[in-house]
Amino acid sequence: MNKEDIAHREKMIELHKKNLYALEEMLAMYGADQPLHLINSATMEREAIARYIKEIEGLASSGAPERTDMVANLPRRHYFVGREQEIKTILQSLNPNSRTFIIGIEGIGGVGKSALAIEASHRCIEEDLFESVIWISAKESVLTLHGIEPIIPEAKSFSDILITIGSSLGNPTIGNMPIQDQIKQAYTLLARRTTLLVLDNFESLSKTEQRDILDFLRRSPITLKALVTSRERVTEGQIIRLQGLSFDESNALLKWDAQQKNIQLTKEQNKYLAEHTGGLPLALLWVQGQIAVLGYSAAQVLDRLSMDANIPVLQYCFNHSWNMLRHHNEKKLLFILALQPEAVSREALRKISGIEDEDGFEIAVSDLLQFTLIEHEPDRDYFSILPLTRRYIRSQFADDRKFIQQAELKTAQYYAALISHRSDFTEWRGYDKLLLDRNNILSAAQWCYKSIQKKLPGTSSLTRKTKSIAELLVQIGAQFGSVLWQRAYWYDRLTLAHASLRAANLLSDWKSVSTFARNISWIYFYQGDSLRALRWAEESLSATTLTRDVLLIAAAQRLIGTVELRLGNFERSEQMLTDALTASEQHANDDYGIYSKGFAQFGLGDLENERGNIKKAGEWYQKALETWQDPVRKDPVRHISYAFNGLGFVALKEKRYEEAERYFKEGIHSANEFGRVEELARGQLGLAMVYLESNADPKAALGLVNESMEGFQRQGMQHETRLGQEFLQKILMLHPRLAAHQQSHG
């Protein structure tokens, strides 16, 4: 560290701050009619301050910045050729000394806008131009044979973009705020670090959303710069307009790709292909992919490309491959793969397709692999298709709508059956294998929801098919929802529970209505929205009045008691938890009864803890532990982490540090074994408190609290995150030397 250099920059910062203060006083005198030259001068002063601050940080830094998190946010970096002048221009504009704050990359679809943005982003990371890089895509359609094919965008609105910014910079719950508060919070987060925001497919957003976003960028802190890709003109900042690759660039891309596919095209063939694709990178790679595996010469394929000049080359290439398929079995498999968002197992393909002849199935798979239309993952024995292949195949659905409808239903039925066999609580050690199909299962649930969403409860009798689909959705919601909850996929469970709740209402299945309302309430509770959690908890209890299920009523009461405790309503909390305990004790030999009894006891422990009755709280936590360890239970591991952590906090308050450490370590072990992210984080926070208060290892305490806060924030647990932040500040206040460690590693 150069102390003289730092001191010099600190003096310059003070000087620029004085100048900025004087300029701001002058601007205030003008009111709304502020002179442009004064505004520009103030901006230059702010930029100078920011530049000197960053230079000081660079001089004071003891090591290279971590890049893992930044790279993880970006799409994969592929082979990149050409565009060097464009890259140079973009990097110059993104340099902190440049006044450009928006760079727009324009061009037609497939010309390489996104690829250029990805390459530029990675080079920014390599050159340490930014502390954070946030990638957001608004892509919602692609060009296919029949026109535009819709896809699900990452962002549809200005609010979606703000939420992504918040999630990327440490505030995953920003979406719970009103829009104006979202904007303020985003500005606050962005002001803390230099950030590159990449907005891909900007044209997919509405004009209103575009205006709001550009206005947001204009008013943003000087620490933010934006890179925008669009098929339309970007009305702000510096514009980079892309054309097709030159012949030399196209040739280089084709040669690299030919080596990967072990084929050889002549220079004349490459030139022919470059001309007929207009140098579009996407088309070049896909056309050559078709050539590599077809059973005839490259010259024949290239000749076919010119048969109809009105058909875009990408469409033509996929049509050609499609027409080369020999049997309907091959199309069936492609249809099924196109219906799924992710890779599909061999077993799922066989059962959903209905191909009973094993040889016929294997021949179809072999043909598709030959045409490179599918990819095989041998380790898992899963098959997948590339996104562009999927988009093309979906454009062919109209040719066999009957099979598509059958495949959609059979897909939902297959995954429902799979869940039924693998989601039982005794199978929790195999949940990770089931979660390999998570997105496909959620996609099947989404199809079920779309199939029934036009039906209103009580308006008319349900057809047999609609009732069957609704029952499938309820089953998926109940069984897979439990897996998502216990593996901490809370946002997925929230979406699934809302969809399943509609199906349960259609069926007048009040037990399921109560269950899904309770599922929704728990997630809102853990995310800190207690009032919304209470509303859903009350709805759950109301639904149970239409049933005679004692344990279901107890579950709703236990939930209300827990939420009321968080809201400070101790009397109602105690009444509800006591009623739940009484009801659960009537089913002492039932697994769910034991589960419910333990959580009622745990809740009463939390209640006494909040009241300050520490000894009584410990007694309740001990009872919960003993209940969950009851020999009747086939698998006690799932919930004992709650009790261990509760006992740990009691021992901590009573300054029994050795016992507290033992309890928390046992809680962490249990939570880690079962995959309970929230209890793992609570145990880490408790153990950190033990290490600090006993002065055993403050540095270890700092590491543990950082790990716990990462878990809390990932799940959106506001209350627990707040506790973690308060404890973190306590560590840094008591041990100032750890502040430097926190800055470099936190």
Walk me through what this model shows.
The chain is mostly helical and 746 residues long. It has 34 helices and 10 strands. The protein has a 5-stranded parallel sheet, sandwiched between helices. It has a 3-stranded antiparallel sheet with strand order 8-10-9. The chain has a two-stranded antiparallel sheet with strand order 3-4. Strand 5, helix 8 and strand 6 form a beta-alpha-beta unit. Helix 15 crosses helix 18. The longest helix is centred in the first third of the chain and has 28 residues. The protein is globular. The protein starts with a helix and ends with a helix. 42% of the residues are buried.
